[in-house]
Amino acid sequence: MRKLLTATAFALLIVAPAAPSSAAVSVYLISRAELGPAPVLGDVASIDAEPGLRKALLDLAIPEKALMDGFVDRREVEDLLAVAAKEGVLVYGNAVRVNRTVKDQPAAAEEPAAVSERLVRAGDSVNVRVKKNGIIIELSGSALENGAHGDEVAVKLKSTRTLKGRVVQKSLIELAL
Questions:
Q1: 3-state SS, one letter per residue, for the chain
Q2: What phi and psi values does residue 27 have, to the nearest 5 degrees?
Q3: pTM reported for the whole predicted model
Q4: CB 67 within 8 A of CB 95
Q5: Cα(91)–Cα(93) distance, rounded to whole angstroms?
Q6: Nearest to 146 by CA among 26, 34, 38, 63
Q7: CB contact at 8 A, 156 and 150
Q8: Which residues, other chains included, contact 157 with Cβ-Cβ below 8 Å and sequence gap of 6+?
Q9: From 90's CA, which of 22, 36, 46, 104 has a CA 20 to 30 Å away?
Q10: Is residue 145 a contact partner of residue 172, using CB atoms and an 8 Å limit?
Q11: What is the pLDDT of residues 8-36, one digit of tens each?
């Protein structure tokens, strides 16, 4: 028994330095994403890092070759981050199934539609408003997807419950029960 404990302790000492104990950047891949014409890392992942670095990483453009198979996998994200992040990076999740949305071109006689501004980004802290029978409750949560006004996005509440709601204004998502 003593030999088994000694061998286990020795094995842990050898393996422990190889495993990172903590990372300065944690990237959480979402399972599915609807991508527009200029996809960025914030469309497929949420990121925990210091604020300046987080913003820069969320705005990294995803190369077209990474989207060709309909998935953005862990290796492609790690390659993208290897150039931008100098600190230790941990990527959680294996892949994101991506779907490209192609908007129809407006007719020449029609006025071009206004480009909708992204009011909520994946990983941002948001206020979640729940309305029912004239009662309004506001909670804090974290957006799991990017969204413009009127878009339906997934929100993770502090209680770790995930719900869908509509983007109403910057950092405000409304749930209708």
A1: CHHHHHHHHHHHHHHHHHCCCCCCEEEEECCEEEECCCCEHHHCEEEECCHHHHHHHHCCECCHHHHCCCEEEHHHHHHHHHHHCCCCEEEECCEEEEEECCCCCCCCCCCCCCCCCEEECCCCEEEEEEEECCEEEEEEEEECCCEECCCEEEEEECCCCEEEEEEEECCEEEEEC
A2: -115, 125
A3: 0.47
A4: no
A5: 6
A6: 34
A7: no
A8: 128, 139, 140, 141, 163
A9: 36
A10: no
A11: 655 555 544 444 445 678 889 888 888 88
Look up residue 42 and give its amino acid: G
Domains of the chain: 23-100 (2.60.480.10), 118-176 (2.30.30.760)
